[in-house]
Structure formats: structure tokens, C-alpha cells
Amino acid sequence: MTGGKGVLRIGTRGSMLALQQSTHVKESLEALWPGLRVELKIIKTTGDKILDVPLAKVGGKGLFVKEIEDALLAREVDIAVHSVKDVPAELPDGLAIGTIPLREDPRDVLILRSGAKLSDLPEGARAGTSSLRRRAQLLRLRPDLNIENLRGNLDTRLRKLGEGLYDAIILAAAGLHRMGWKDRISAYLDETEFVPAIGQGAVGIEVRVEDDTIRRFLAPLHHSETALAVEAERSLLKELEGGCQVPIGGHARVLGEDLELTGLVASLDGKRVFRTTLKAPRKEASALGVRLARELLDSGAGEILDEIYRK
């Protein structure tokens, strides 16, 4: 291991939420394997440095993982802990998401300065988000809102709302839950109507493919049903060839021996929304994602993707 005998090093971003997630993995490993020492190595990513430009204009998802993956490939760290929604559909050669623990709440949530639900916002209210997926779905529900770019870590976004820069912001429930800030949530948005990001609420532990010893340490943290759901969602994303430049959502859940997957592709203005739900045996998770993507493309979503990528 990179940290010396008996020391396992975790590569992580330095935000409060990233450190909370990585610390949870560290403490879980140390509890499972007495004598194993785990250290965190904070790595600043490009996404952490560029905070004044929408993600869609500066490269999208890979901005939050590339430097950490480089450190993993260079053996400067042994594992990397990511929010799965930040991880591109294609991983670098030699790396894999080896472990996915139990998923937190995958839903998006609304946080208002006043009021308790989306309909409480006055016409022309300012809603903050950096996500094209959230923007499109908000505009579908409330085309009268002014959607403004909002970047920064979770605490920064909440602070900006408190300062009156926005009337409402949209965040992931999982981050607020993990930070113990549930009391800030005004309303949860139903995941079948307001489709979450691919992998939202899930943590992925990335490893070098050949590191069998590391995989053995991580195995007890793996949650098979969460992993199946994430596999279907990421298969959908890969088939759509999507990233942060396109409003794409996907959410899967295990129902007994079956897997149900909902996928969404929307135009940037929210006026055209394609949403489909399919089921398949859980053993066909990856194939389900491909099949759903092709149905969305055939139904008209392909035209939206072509228009966006031509810009």
C-alpha cells in the first residue's frame, strides 16, 4: 500500500461533504480491519478551482475526479472516494469502481428562503442551480422562474441562499442528510417526477483493477442492490453519451427480482421532456440501461442531444 505497511491512503476532494464521505469510509475500514491504519489525502480538482463558470462550459463531470484518478494510477493513493454522480461513464484504463456502499436518499430537494413548496415561490423568483438537468425540470414545472447559476460547495450554496442572492436552491438530499442538515430542507422532489442525476446519493470507491488485496479490504462495504441500480443508471448514461452538458437524469430501484429504471432527457428550456420507465430482471442491469437509452433516443431525445452537441 502507498502509505507503507498497514497504511491505506484514500484520495478525496477537500470539501466538507467529500471529507465526511471519505471519513466514513476510513472509519468503517478501520472498524472492520483492526490494525489497518487509513489516511486521507486531500487532492484539489479542477472543478474545485473553477467556481465562477457553469460546469457545462468547462468540461462537466470529469472535472471533479481526474486529478484524484491520476493520483490513484500513480500509486500516490490506494483508493478514491467519489460521489458517483460526479464520475464520467467511461473510466480510465486500469481503474474500476470496485465498491458501492448502501445508497443515501437519491432525491433532489428544494430549499426556500420562505414557504414550504415550489408553488409558494412568486412569479419571477430566483432559483439557483449549476445543473442543466435541474434547470430543465424546474422550468418544466415553473417556466416563470429565473434560473441562475449557482456553484460552490454545499455550505457555500446554503450561505448564498441565506444572504438573499436566491429565493430558492435545489440540492441533493444525500449531501444534506450526510452533513446532518435535514432541517434545512423545505420539500423533497419525487424521483419519478423530478428525475435525479445518474448515481445521485451513491458513493463509489474507485480502485486499481489489479489490486486484489485492496478489493478484499473493501468487500464488506459493498451493497449489491445499490450497485445494481447504479450499474443500470451508468449504462443508460454511457449509451446516451451524456455528461453535464446535457439535461439527463436516471434513477433505478430494485423490486424483488426485478430492476426498474426511469430515464429522462430534456431540452435546455424544459419545453421538451422525454421520460421513460422500463423493468427487467435484476441480472440484466446493464442491458436495461442500454435498452432504455435507445427507447429515449427513438422517441425524440436524440434530436435534443444532436441540437445541444452541435452548439
Short description:
This protein has 3 domains: 1-102 and 202-222, D-Maltodextrin-Binding Protein, domain 2 (3-Layer(aba) Sandwich), CATH 3.40.190; 108-189, D-Maltodextrin-Binding Protein, domain 2; 223-311, Porphobilinogen deaminase, C-terminal domain (Double Stranded RNA Binding Domain). Helices cover 33% and strands 23% of the residues. The protein has helices spanning 16-32, 46-49, 66-73, 132-141, 154-162, 173-178, 212-218, 224-240, 285-310; strands at residues 7-12, 37-42, 79-83, 95-99, 108-112, 126-128, 146-148, 168-172, 187-189, 203-208, 248-255, 258-266, 273-281.
What features would you describe in this structure?
The strands form three sheets. A five-stranded mixed beta sheet has the order 2-1-3-10-4, with helices on both faces. The chain has nine helices and 13 strands. It is of the alpha/beta class and 311 residues long. It has helices at 16-32, 46-49, 66-73, 132-141, 154-162, 173-178, 212-218, 224-240, 285-310; strands at residues 7-12, 37-42, 79-83, 95-99, 108-112, 126-128, 146-148, 168-172, 187-189, 203-208, 248-255, 258-266, 273-281.
Shape: globular
Distance N terminus to C terminus?
45 Å
Measured as a percent range, the helix fraction is 25-40%
Topology order in helix (H) and strand (E) letters: EHEHHEEEEHEHEHEEHHEEEH
Number of domains: 3
Proportion of β residues?
15-25%
